[in-house]
Specification:
Elements lengths: L1 E10 L4 H11 L3 E10 L2 E10 L5 H12 L4 E7 L13 E8 L6 H11 L3 E9 L8 E9 L5 H14 L3 E6 H7 L3
Helix pairs in contact: 1-2, 3-4
């Protein structure tokens, strides 16, 4: 068996996940991972599945496109090449960085540039911008893997400095602390 990655994007409507998973099942694929979200009424989903060796990515893409055409979705399928885990991140520290503040262009760019400069990897980002100066209407949550060989003190200092320049409230916590404090 090989692995494929399927990306689906389009206007949200009922039945998208059911259609994708049914077509994959009918082609003897097995879902391994799914991540999907809806942003401003747009569906975005990524599916990783094992697939029979003789099923080409092109054929699977054509079948998914045909099956999802009534739902108006755009499909991209590619073989997922096996990759070795990056040893730098095998024992990375998981950190949650949260910012709140007035909306302005370039917020994500300015924060992620600092994160990248320190060799850290953003593994998940949620950003909600509703405009205006009310800090509770503009929130970004970055899940970041910080290499143990990195400079957390430097990263935190640079993030705090940039947050102050941008009039952002910033919180930087180890993921375990964040999860313990935000448990429902």
């Amino acid at each position: 068996m090989k692995k494929v990655i399927v990306s689906v994007v389009g206007r949200d409507r009922p039945g998208i996940i059911a259609s994708v998973s049914r077509i994959l099942f009918d082609r003897e694929c097995n879902l391994e991972n799914v991540s999907q979200t809806i942003l401003q009424l747009q569906f975005s989903g990524i599916f990783i599945a094992t697939a029979p060796e003789d099923l080409s990515a092109r054929l699977l893409e054509e079948e998914l496109a045909r099956g999802l055409s009534p739902l108006g979705q755009h499909i991209f399928v590619n073989d997922l090449e096996p990759a070795e885990p990056d040893p730098v991140f095998s024992d990375a520290e998981p950190v949650i960085i949260t910012t709140r503040g007035p909306d302005r262009k370039g917020l994500v760019s300015r924060i992620t540039e600092i994160i990248a400069r320190y060799g850290a990897n953003v593994t998940n980002l949620q950003a909600v911008f509703k405009g205006g100066d009310d800090p509770n209407r503009n929130i970004m949550i970055y899940e970041v893997d910080l290499p143990r060989s990195g400079d957390p003190a430097g990263l935190y200092a640079d993030l705090r400095k940039k947050a102050e320049e941008l009039d952002l409230e910033i919180s930087i916590q180890h993921r375990h602390i964040f999860e313990a404090m935000n448990r429902i």
